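Allow me, if you will, to draw on your knowledge of protein folds for a short while. The matter concerns a single protein, recorded as an amino acid sequence and a row of backbone structure tokens. Kindly check, if you would, that the fold set down in the tokens agrees with what the sequence suggests. You will find the record immediately after this paragraph.
***
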Amino acid sequence: MKKNNKNTTGKITVGLPNALLYSRYEVLWKTFFATLGAEIVVSGPTTKEILQLGTKVAIDESCLSAKIYLGHILALIGKCDYILVPRISNWGRQRNMCTRFESLYDLSCNTFRYTGQKFLSYNIAVSKKLTEEKAFLDLGMELGFSKKEANDAYKTAKKKEAAAWKNRWKKEEQLYKTDGMKIAVAAHSYLAEDAYFGRPVMDCLKKLGAIPIRVDITDRKEALKQSLKVSPTLKWELNREIAGSLQIHRDKIDGIILLSAFPCGPDSMVNDIITREFRELPVLIIVLDTQNGTAGIETRLESFVDILKFKKGEL
């Protein structure tokens, strides 16, 4: 997208795909664009139709989460001036993101190049001194706003994001102190919060009388520190947070469910590490794919809960 020298076109409408990093950066993105006076359009929850649309335009080797994401982009095309697709490479040494987050912008632009839809992006690669702050300042100025306007919007957004996240993980932390069978659900936020795939798993566990706790909702700074005890060489940021969160709470949970999207490379490796490093706890691995229906998954969840009850002497 070409830079504008001045923002004189009125309100800009920015589309946010409700998938992948949306659940992680919802507050940051919404506050930043709203502070600049832009209108925001968010795609709806994942449905069977959205999954089918994304699967049709994705290559066969794409992971489930990427297929879902492309479906959400399709749901936004023609409904906004720009669709935000960030490019995030790393947050520094041993803090890499999966390569999908580095290639997603180019993938999206190429996949939908004939639609006429415009895309926005910002680049983060701390190893190359491309910080988040710089990325958002550049993004704001690219949209035609002044550096001061972009800077003020970013600071406002970061402050609101920090407060919202602290409240969220403090609330999740309270679940570890409640009575009942506590099951740590280790899944990326974009999968755990997905209405079509992740939430049914959480709902099923609740119906079975268990207390599902999302380990991705955590004190991220402490989780990254504690992840070194699980694996000192683990480099993927999101997986490190999950592993570190499990380490923090390993004495407070009865079992672990590793929930992944097929065929996620980082998850396949990290799940193996977690299984070996947390041998004192029962672990269930569930890999979700494009197949329809949750009957098989529900049966596996029921069996896992029964195992935990038997282990606790409740069955």
